[in-house]
Specification:
Bound molecules: flavin-adenine dinucleotide
Structural class: alpha+beta
Shape: rod-shaped
Number of domains: 1
Distance between the termini: 103 Å
Order of helices and strands: EEEEEH
Length: 106
Amino acid sequence: MYWCSGVRFVERCSVNQVTTNVGRVSGVDTTLGHINCEIFVNCAGLVSTPISCRLIMIIIIIIIIVVIIIIIIIIIIIIVIIIKFLQAANALCHVSVSNRHVSRLL
Ligand SMILES: Cc1cc2nc3c(=O)[nH]c(=O)nc-3n(C[C@H](O)[C@H](O)[C@H](O)COP(=O)(O)OP(=O)(O)OC[C@H]3O[C@@H](n4cnc5c(N)ncnc54)[C@H](O)[C@@H]3O)c2cc1C
């Protein structure tokens, strides 16, 4: 760690997550602990997008999981409806066959 022109440089310290409070940056979680800040300048080069977008990625993953669960529920409902429909059709066939037997016996 060293100071230069009023700026403190901390080496061998990795930013894990940018924390927010009501939509505003409130600090950064680092390997050396939490640092409170009002302004965060992301200059992590090629990996700057994943650092900024970690929260967005988590939200997108949750949305994808919810959509997959909804699709699975819809598929299960459709399968149950088809099974019920087939069972009802099968029961109608039995009723019509038994009615024919009754009419022949009469
Ligand atoms: C092979 C190659 C050749 C190039 N040649 C040239 C050239 O000839 N001329 C030219 O003008 N440009 C060249 N470039 C492009 C140049 O290197 C980049 O544009 C420049 O380095 C970008 O600077 P930067 O400060 O934005 O990012 P970087 O130099 O990538 O610095 C990012 C810093 O963030 C740190 N960091 C990353 N993640 C974290 C984290 N989670 N927490 C804390 N710190 C983190 C990294 O350790 C790194 O020190 C070249 C690039 C490559 C890959």
